[in-house]
Amino acid sequence: MESPAPASRLVLLQGTLDMLILQTLQWGPQHGYAITQMIRARSSEALQVETGSLYPALHRLERQGWVKADWGQTDTNQQAKFYRLTAAGKKQLARERDRWSQLVAAISGVLDPDPAKG
Amino acid sequence: MRWNFFKSTRRREEDLRREIATHLAFAAQDRVADGQDPEAARRAVLKEFGNVTLTLESTRRTWGGMWVDYAGALLGDLRYAVRLLLRSPGYSVIVIAVLALGIGTNLIAFALFKALALTPLPGVADAPALHFVYSRSRGGGLSSLSYPDYRYLRDEHPGYSAVAGASMQPFTLGLRERQLRLVGEFVTGNYFATLGVGAQRGRTILPSDDINPGGHPVVVISDGLWRREFAGDPDIIGKPIRLNSFLLTIVGVADEDFRGAVVGIQNDVFVPVTMLSQVSQFGGGNWLDDRHNSWVQTFARPRAGVTLARARAQTEVLAARLAAEYPIEEKTIRAFSMPFWESPYGAQTYVLPTTVLISAMSALLLLVVCINVAGLVLVRGMSRRGEMAARLALGASRPRILRLLLMEHLTLALPGACVGLVLPRLLEPIMASAQPDAAPLPLYFNFGPDGLVVAFAAALALVSALLSGLWPSLKGTRIDLASVIKDGLLPHSGRKSPMRTALVVCQIAMSFVLLVGTSLTVRSLEGARRADPGFDAAHVGSIVLDVKAGGYDEPGGRRFYRQLLDDLRADPGIEAASLASTLPLTLVDYGSNPEFAIEGHTRGPNEETHFFYNVIAPDYFRTLRIGVVAGRDFTRDDDPAAEPVAIVNETMARRFWGEPARAIGERIRMTEEWRTVVGVVEDIKYARINEDPRPYVYLPFEQMYLPGMTLQVRASSPSFPLLEHARRHVEMLDPNLSILEARMLTEQTRIAFAIYDVSARVLGVVGVVAMSLAALGIYGLVAYSVKQRTHEIGVRLAVGARRSDIVQLFMSMGVRLGVVGAAIGAGLAVVVTRFMASLLFGVSTTDPVSFVLVAGGVVSIALVASLVPAWFGARTDPLAALRHT
């Protein structure tokens, strides 16, 4: 499978990867590859997570105590390292979602000023 | 802990690799499931994933922040440095060896310094915080306190949490089959508690041992004595031993490190002061009640927050009160406090100046070493210009390159420091041989490498790495990229290397200073040996006896000594024989220096009239060949029944009576009775070879009986087996009496030269090392120059120069270096040696012989060091030289 056409590919905004990972883990523990696949699927193939950023991000999140990593079995009985959201991670996710919606609201406000008048 | 860190890092690393492998595997499986060929899937996955190493790197970086990253890089640098140094083992070995010499010498000096300054009293908690308390006589002389005065301070001083006292004395330890001389202390009950020293077995001396005079026959022994003489007997507690023939019970073995309260001296027994009258060799005397009898070395521990000034003021108040309550004429200050370091008591007084000299010289040597290594580094830096240029061109930052270079030099300096740690051990025998067995006191210095020495070694390694490596590297990395690339990465340009020349000259100059220092100490030693001490020690034997330990009472002892002298004098091989209580020229004054009164003389306000004295039998002056200037020698008739008499030396006679002859018949008083002066004798050096003339008194043995005396015998001919004969005479008279020591007097007096001897030996080593390094430097520079100018040599030879011209060319270069270095060194030395003045004897600090000798030596070494490479240069094959360069 070739990479999607450049036009359909979006570059992740700085700092949003952490939030996406945390959000993905909200639905249950996952290993790295599954996380990229889930993000890709949920974004309808628009978001492609660079593995070069994924693993540093995962390890950073682990260091901050927002996720916890353990080796476990996949559905196909293979060993993989699973990341699990911690309580602190849940709070962090809520914070980041909050900030994100504020950001989206602010940016939309700028791009689409006063829709009532428009 | 550090190791754990590396281990856990390694585990994480494996974990991460596994994690990424599973990622790749899953991705490939998905593609295969979609119907792709496995091999194509694998390749596609790798392509999609991107740079695995980069991912590993950036993930790793999240683990430990900057620190881990930095440590990892340093580790990489270290690995690179080790590989590099292994590639040129010759260079590495030389640099490590040279640095080891420099660092090792400094460690020796530091170990000495540590022994004296940092742990002056092994086993004692925070010894330098202690204060000493002395009294001062009118003439300024220091003396100990009397026991009643000590007790007053102990009970009344508000600034001291504890005031303890001790008196170091010689003891004769009676073992089953022989007797042994050792040094120990009479101690107050709070001595051990004040010093913070415990007992590893049994107990220490306690305040409860300090109550009834004569009522506490106990002793604590040192760990050393316990192991040496009792083989570490676990049941030692409760066993009896004889000290000075008095029976005492061993109640404890002191802590392992503890060696008493006198710096640099090994004390082996500790007896309560209450036993002084019974046990002390100095017999009689009212030790515990007499305020005139000053013998307590007093030291005190200040309470928290009490400064020296405050303690001093408090002591002053108490001293004034003492003087008012119990006036004693001869003491102006009854008690004053001084810091530990100013105490005149202990080995530090004699050894500290030498230590400072050795330290300074060692530091200078390390500088020479660093300069030498810097020279080597500079040459290597030249050949590594290519590498550095490449690194810079590839984008390495200068700090990054410097870090790499520093790591390289540390990998050289640290092994150097490790080897250097062994050096003090090697030097110990040299130091030991300077200290004669006959040393009157068992000296002890803690030379062993401990944490402090190791830390110091590490610090020196860092400093020398910076000094010798980084600085020239810095020069080396200041590269003009364009010029290097243009010149084809090899240093062809710049035939001359002014910096190397400067380094070599600098090195020669430093070595010059060191050699002058060495020469001055060696000449001091010679001078001290040649100096006339005023007596003739050659062919005189000394035998130490203690008849009290042999079971004699006073009348028996008198009879024994009289008979022994008669027997010896009857021996045709013996020219003269006598007895003395102390030996001359043994570095310290033994016995005491009581205050003398001189009839008809009114003491000036600041006049010192405390003089040392020696108790002697008739014929002492003939035995030691000391001239009698006026009057007569003692005779056997100067006995207790006769008029009390004394003999004084010339200095004393001139001071009080104008001239020797006028002293005869005058009277002096030591304690209670007046003594008539019957003779005046020539001055000798009583303790040190460099002492000033001073008054001295001799008292007759018959009127001042002492059980412990030293027999002095002079042989009629040099080949006469003097000591054996003398021994046999003692044995014939009493086979059971132990001979505590039997030695020639010349051996005994060696201690007086020990200071000059030690400095001459250590500086000798330092000087030789410095000079060889300088030679190495000259050799290196000339050899380098020969190599660089091979082409030129080829041309010269090709156009008809003779080989001798070539030799001359390079030799003159070496000699020029030597001459310039020597000239600068001479200038430096004139300034530097001025600080040595107090350590010299009989030579001036600008001793022309030393300067000329060293200058000659330096220039000839420069000549020899440049001869070899010059000769190699002259053997260059002109054809080969022209073809290949």
Task: Draw up the topology in text.
The complex is a heterodimer of chains A (118) and B (885).
Chain A lengths: L15 H11 L3 E2 H11 L8 H13 L3 E7 L5 E7 L1 H25 L7
Antiparallel strand pairs in A: 1-3, 2-3
Chain B lengths: L1 H32 L4 H12 L2 H36 L1 H30 L12 E7 L4 E2 L1 E2 H10 L3 E15 L4 E9 L3 H5 L3 E4 L15 E4 L1 H8 L9 E4 L2 E9 L14 E4 L3 H4 L14 E9 L5 H18 L5 E9 L8 H36 L1 H9 L4 H37 L16 H27 L3 H6 L11 H33 L9 E7 L7 H17 L3 E7 L16 E2 L14 E4 L3 H5 L3 E4 L13 E5 H8 L2 H4 L3 E3 L4 E8 L15 E4 L7 E8 L6 H12 L7 E4 H4 L5 H35 L1 H9 L4 H30 L15 H27 L3 H7 L1
Parallel strand pairs in B: 5-10, 7-9, 16-21, 18-20
Antiparallel strand pairs in B: 1-2, 1-11, 1-12, 3-11, 4-5, 4-8, 4-11, 6-9, 7-10, 8-9, 13-22, 13-23, 14-22, 15-19, 17-20, 18-21, 19-20
In this structure, how is the largest beta sheet of chain B organized? Answer: 7 strands, mixed
Taken from the alpha-carbon principal axes, the silhouette of chain B is: globular
Task: Count the DSSP helices of chain A.
Answer: 4
Share of helix among residues of chain A? 40-55%
Number of distinct beta strands of chain A:
3
Radius of gyration of chain A: 17 Å
Query: How much strand content do the residues of chain A show?
Result: 5-15%
Please provide the ordered H/E string of secondary-structure elements of chain A.
HEHHEEH
How much of the sequence lies in strands of chain B comes to: 15-25%
Total number of distinct structural domains of chain B: 5
In the sheet with the most strands of chain A, the strands line up as 1-3-2
Specify the biggest β-sheet of chain A.
Answer: 3 strands, antiparallel
Radius of gyration from the alpha-carbon trace of chain B, in angstroms: 37 Å
Any idea what the shape of chain A is?
globular
The greatest interface between two protein chains, and residues involved on each side, is: A-B, 21 and 25 residues
Structural class of chain A: alpha+beta
Q: Quote the average pLDDT of chain B.
A: 83
Query: If you average the pLDDT of chain A, what whole number results?
Result: 81
Tell me the number of helical segments of chain B per DSSP (H or I, 4 or more residues long).
26
Number of strands of chain B: 23
The multimeric state of the shown protein is heterodimer
